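Hi V.,

You were right to ask for the full record rather than a summary. Here it is.
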Amino acid sequence: MLVHSRKGKWATWALFFVLFLPLFALPLLVILAASFAEHWSGALPSGFTTGHYASATRGSSLRALTTSLVTAVAASLLALAVGSWAALAAASLKQSAGRAARLWGRGLDALFVLPVAVPSVVVGLAVLVAFSRPPMILNGTRWIVILAHAILVTAFAHQSVAAAVHRLDPAYEQAAASLGARPAYVLWKVKLPLLLPSLNAAAGLCFALSMGELSATMMLYPPDWMPLPVQIYAATDRGSTFTGAAVAVVLMAATLLVLFAVSRVRTRASYR
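Predicted structure:
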């Protein structure tokens, strides 16, 4: 810690808990308490039951959880591939000698950040309009949901990889090129292994964002491909707040488990 005195450390921890508990921990604890509550008419819930988790882990909720996991994994892989390619291409263009190429590189960066600059519901509407007519009709299929999620999270993969590419030491590439390595070999054997920790982090971020996406999903999902956030919204909308809270806890637990598994992935570049 940057604070070295004992009083300063205690003050820092006290400030952390004062800010952390009301803003971050307390809402999650309320959801957790509601998932086990039978009634909640006062300041605290009354009664204790695990019955809400029975409906949250079977039937339509279990199918919705599987849908969310498949959607998030597919969208994350697609976003990681496209975002990494864009980051590498933009970095190569910006390092070139020509002014036009550098402008193209900046334009490519701006293009892939654009989905973050507009509301996700606008992205959902754009995808719906674009893929509801020939030559490619995806409306009413699961693929339109996966595509929308990939578009929304690609910007985060692109930014993460672009920042890592900017920090790479060019000496590695120059040494490989001086030994006669082709550009494709340098990319595959030198640059990508060095970028693996950033790719790992970007994959986790994309997965978490896709698991919680609701706005664009509400406009696009077909009846046979309902992700879990839509299930939570539907449960709370019809008054089943406690069941919705239990489904939300299942969503948080599944997301955290996958993120923990991703964080345990070790690469050779992680130890350098």
